[in-house]
Amino acid sequence: MLQIKRSAYHRAMPTTHLLYLHGFRSSPQSAKAQTMAARVAACHPAVAWWCPQLPPSPKAAMELIDAGVARWPAGTMAVVGSSLGGFYATAVAQRRGCKAVLLNPAVDPALSLARHIGEQACWHNPDDHFFFEARFVDELRALQAGPLNRPQDILAIIAKGDEVLDWREMAARYAGAQLHLLEGGDHALSDFDAHLPLVLDFLKLA
Q1: Tell me: the pLDDT tens digits for 147-206?
Q2: CATH architecture of the domain with range 2-203
Q3: Which of 102, 107, 106, 105 is nearest to 198 (CA)?
């Protein structure tokens, strides 16, 4: 009963603090992150916005995130995460009890990223490289969240045309959440602008 009341409370309260987490090899310069940042700045200037550049180490990334939102009010914060950022966002939502919007979220990145160990180029600056270490796979396993505490406080936008992740695995992982399944589409959600009203309606930004 307390869980139901808390979820209803979250839905009723406007979001005052918004965290955006990018995906593997991505950055705050991603199209989706920039779109969200622009909308928040233009229409919701009172909302605290944070989109950090995440380090390659999952452990370091989560430590950065935890430190950055430590003083944020759990009842009125929300997190948006894309791909690997969706995996991190799930962990944040589980820990803080906040709302989350997941965009083609990675379900088991320890498995999918194990074949990417080695030097990687960043999407938005190909001259910038980082090394994805074998120990990072174990760090991802350690961050794997269990069953969803409040699936009703999660919106998952999943493209059946995702060329990187299996939409069936995503839909199964987030069963019980508010699922928005797209016929076609791609991993990057190139048509993100078309889904922005749905995202904003769910977040209810202050």
Answers
A1: 999 999 999 999 999 999 999 999 999 999 999 999 999 999 999 999 999 999 999 999
A2: 3-Layer(aba) Sandwich (3.40)
A3: 102
For residues 103 and 157, the answer to whether their CB atoms sit within 8 Å is: yes
Roughly what angle, to the nearest 10 degrees, separates helices 58-69 and 84-96? 40
DSSP characters over 125-180: EEEEEEEE-THHHHHHHHH---S-S-GGGEEEEEETT-SSS-HHHHHHHTTTSEEE
Model confidence, pTM: 0.91
Work out whether strand 17-21 and strand 48-50 pair parallel, antiparallel, or are unpaired. Answer: parallel
User: Which residues, in sequence order, are bridge partners of residue 132?
Assistant: 118
Pairing of strands 125-132, 118-122: antiparallel
Residue 132 backbone dihedrals phi, psi, to 5 degrees:
-90, 110
Left (φ > 0), alpha (ψ -120 to 50) or beta: where does 150 sit? beta
Q: Where are the domains of the chain?
A: 2-203
